[in-house]
């Protein structure tokens, strides 16, 4: 079953780092997932997230305001 991953952020350095970490975890572990980068502020606001970057997996906000470790992301995706 494919995971729906969304990374909420305006494109700042932290947001780019989170995107990189998530993509690496997905690739390295052959996880079936779609990764969407949401940069539109109005769309981010719909998630009630005040601090970015935020990681949304299957429409559940899992991490916000910081860059996760690869282990954290892998645990969330399993």
TrEMBL record:
InterPro entries: Thioredoxin-like_fold, Thioredoxin-like_sf, THIRX-like_proc. Residues 4-77 form the Thioredoxin-like fold domain. NCBIfam families: redox_disulf_2 (TIGR00412). Pfam families: Thioredoxin_3. This is Small redox-active disulfide protein 2. Coiled coil: none annotated.
């Amino acid at each position: 079953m494919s995971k729906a991953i969304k990374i909420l952020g305006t494109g700042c350095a932290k947001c780019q780092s989170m995107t990189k970490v998530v993509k690496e975890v997905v690739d390295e572990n052959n996880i079936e997932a779609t990764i969407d980068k949401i940069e539109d502020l109005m769309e981010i606001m719909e998630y009630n997230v005040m601090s970015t970057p935020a990681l949304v997996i299957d429409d559940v906000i899992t991490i916000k305001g910081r860059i996760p470790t690869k282990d954290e992301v892998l645990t969330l995706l399993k």
